[in-house]
Batch of 4 targets.
Target 1
Amino acid sequence: MSRLFNCTATAVFAFALILSCALAAATPASWSDPSPHNQGFVSVNGVRLEYLDWGGSGPALILIHGSGDNAHAFDDLAPAFIDRFHVLAYSRRGHGLSAAKPPYDTVTLMEDLRGFMDALGIAKANLVGWSLGGNEITAMAATHQERVARLVYLEGGYDWSDPEYKRAFDAYPSRLRDTPASAMSSLDAYRSYERAMDYTGLNDMRRVEAYLRESIVIQPDGSVRPRISKEVMDALTAALWTNPSRDYTRVSSPALAIYSESMIDLNVADPESRADALAWERTYMAPFRAKSIARVRRELAQVSVMTVPGAHDSFFLTSREQVVKAVRRFLGVSAR
């Protein structure tokens, strides 16, 4: 998930365990990533970055994930654009198989993006930023306008440095904050937990299998641990509050801002967790979302805004057809 809360959400794990046997049976012991991409590495701005290349012909379309995620978040989405674009994604520093090397501020991450484009010989690109990836694409379009064609914010049209978001972050319910140890007992348990907490509306967990596998490290005893260390997650979180406010007024590129209906999955099975999630969403996130939408409408010179069903972590999977159609239309190509 996009771990803007420095953790995975949690809940009573009994429900997730019910799913584990069925989901385990659906995943063979010998597994390979079915998404049609090549993996590569580049050294840019003093850091080694992992990237995925789905190929395709036409202008470059670069997908940038959020905090706590990795480039495999787009395994399911990226192939929808390869008929008209050269589609790539990279794991931001500290994420996936990219090197964990501070600092993690927006300026540094923007320079990582610019270096990535330079290394691959990309003079100009369409940029898609999911969640915290909206920071890089905004900064890139504001600072290096000649390198950016169009911007797509996938639940990325928020200024995460806003004190109002900090209040929401600090108020996040403790019941939802920490991943239970039982969820980390095995890959199957972790997958089942994620299904129960973040992907209740997803029809097939195989669509996020590579993403989940790169989010963890499997230990010799079969248990798993987060791939991103607590030290790195703490540094990523700290950078949220010290980044300068976004300057949308310097962005001249046309933009599409897609928002999901909720920040967190409101359909978890545990009633108390569901009640906590709904209360937090209504009290904190709904007002911040409304404020954020009003701001992008006011400050971005050329922006279209839309809202789709789903939650922050999974909406471009559960509402994939609607998202793909909107992005293709915005980028000037017809639906497939």
Target 2
Amino acid sequence: MKKLFKILKWTGIIVLLLIIGLVVYVQTSWNKKYEAPYPEIKASTDSSVIARGKYLAFGPAHCGTCHVPMDKIEDVEKGDINQPLSGGWTLDIAPGSFRAPNLTSHPELGIGKLTDGEIARTLRHMVGSDGRCIFPFMPFADMSDEDLTAVISFLRSQPPVEHEVKRTELTFLGKALMAFGVITPMGTKGTPPKSVPIDTTIEYGKYLANSVGNCVGCHTKRDFVTGAFIGEPFAGGTYFEPDPFSYGMSFITPNLTPDPNTGHIASWSQDVFVARFKSGKVYKGTPMPWGSFSRMNETDVKAIYKYLKSLPPVAHKIDKVAYLAGEKVPKSAM
């Protein structure tokens, strides 16, 4: 009996020391600094460039969905595209409380103190001006130089707004993911294009769906702890649990591939697809930024349609995309 007690005692001590060692390592190692190149992007004062940037920010790139105060998000969704991007949106998930920063030209509380290169590096390489890793919520790494210039030019054109946004705060899990290199800056997949011709083509649709609108980011099943994709591209299956804007509802993204049996839009014509984008929300709690996407011009929507129709079909049945408050979501659907 004494021998067993001794074994248990030393086992407990060893486990405790391992836990202490783990906590110390995470707390002292999570805030890593990274190097990344500064893209040669220079903001323009040309009105047409700024207009393109504003279109992207309040349209397909949907910056206005996050970079406004929480009580202004619905205003933007309903059409207020003159709302300053002063930040404040908050997302509370397992790795931490993530807050969208102030993107107005305020010299201290916004981006006024940052160079064009620092802003471009953050958007393209997920490395902040202080070298920290930015979690992958802004999938614009492969946005063209032309569009990246337009977005930064628009941001520079905004008047400064004195709105202090508290910094993102990571939980122990979030810090552990950083410390052990599970989360690292996500850069480009290749060399981003200088520009992409705007036309109703598959190529332009691919660019919008993957590098601007981030359709792939939600319509591909992923792990929300690490952000890793764990499903076939555009085959749906990402589960969105209830949040402050979902009115208690939860959602599962549909399969957008042209599989004839399980593809959500497989039977849709181009006209039906365009009309759906223009009609906005069906469920008021949906995580899809319908307000922003309803402002997309028909050229962009038609290009996305053609691209989605060109995808290889994936058989992935999503029985239901919206669950009412209190309605149980079957585990098989997540």
Target 3
Amino acid sequence: MLLYGYVIMCNHVHAIMGAKEDTNGLSGLIRDYKRFTSKQLIHWVLSKKKERRRDWMIAIFRHGAFESGNLDLFQIWMHHNCPMVITQNKFFNQKFNYIHPNPVKAGIVRNPEEYIYSSATNYAGFDENILNVIIIDDWSVIGLVG
């Protein structure tokens, strides 16, 4: 996965990403991302015996599996998502400029780069970031048309 931008909010995630190789297209990339992160999150929650929100998170994940009819014990992600294939620089810029202000609109921070769970910190040049992203100054270099 190539990660160009992201914002992790309390109830949803925005990500601008691409695949290193065209394995199964966008749906395959999202499927694999959800599978990997679900396993990691469930493992983390179950291993944190002293985490005060542990029981609450387990209950939420179990309820999600029950409501969806999922055969697994836990469900982290919703089954649907809203993938959009970005083929033009204008559309890329629009999406990129949409995701970073999310924490500002939610009243969490005053400026996008103050929110640590966002690639806005990477693009602001901060040294401490929770995820590394591929910084793109010229969107045309990633193969967009237009």
Target 4
Amino acid sequence: MSVATVKRRIKIIRPPSFSPLALLGGFGVLWHYRDLLYTLSVHRIKVRYKQSILGILWAVLQPLSLMLIYTLVFRIIGNVPTGGTPYPIVAFSGLLIWSFFSTALTNSTNGLVSHSHLVTKVYFPREILPLTYVVAALFDFIIASFVLAGLMLYYGIPFTSSLVYVIPILAILVCFVSSISLIFSALQVRFRDVGVAMPLLLQLWMFASPVVYPLSAIPQKYLSFYSLNPMVGVVDNFREVLLHGATPNFDTLALSAIVSLLLVPASYIYFKHVEATLADVV
């Protein structure tokens, strides 16, 4: 009795050439695996809240609890000026968008290492793993946004047509955090110090961004240097269009957009270049 031999398809991963065609080819393969990206992202969200009593309420509790703490410290004790806007909603709006950024970056940095069994056994675009954590964090952001809407109603802050600017601001942030996630997740495979240093890095980065204080608290002479941080344009403009119904500060937002758009191809090229050896060292 003969046994049929089934030939399995073998994929050899090599570092791509640094060319626009290779970059487009990589994006094309990623698009081909879009169903896997969706499936793993949904799985990521379900696993996070599986057997949890509070479920998706955890997406709200983190920025809400931090808002209460910073309200006590910075408003009641420190008396941070907010220009007449209630401090709790100033803090919550900044913490909401920062929580998305920090959660996505923290989890995606360990994405490849925590799924080494997949990386070493089956082929798929490896960038899918860190990107699923960005999608999961975006889901948490959307859930927590309903609390921000409730706070706006409570404090009598109207919803204006400037809300449409939230979409491009959020798109810039998604591009930025996705790019940083690809770089850090690849570095974490080789240097585990990256994951260890991440909490400290994010803590310093948060206080270097207008998250728990308004941009107006920064002295004018330091503002140009301070605005080089891409998160400044994102956080401040998110708060301005929501709470004040203003148009974005296109100078700071343009800087964030330029950095993000430059990082997207650069980070993807770097990730695909080191992808060929990820399975060897993970």
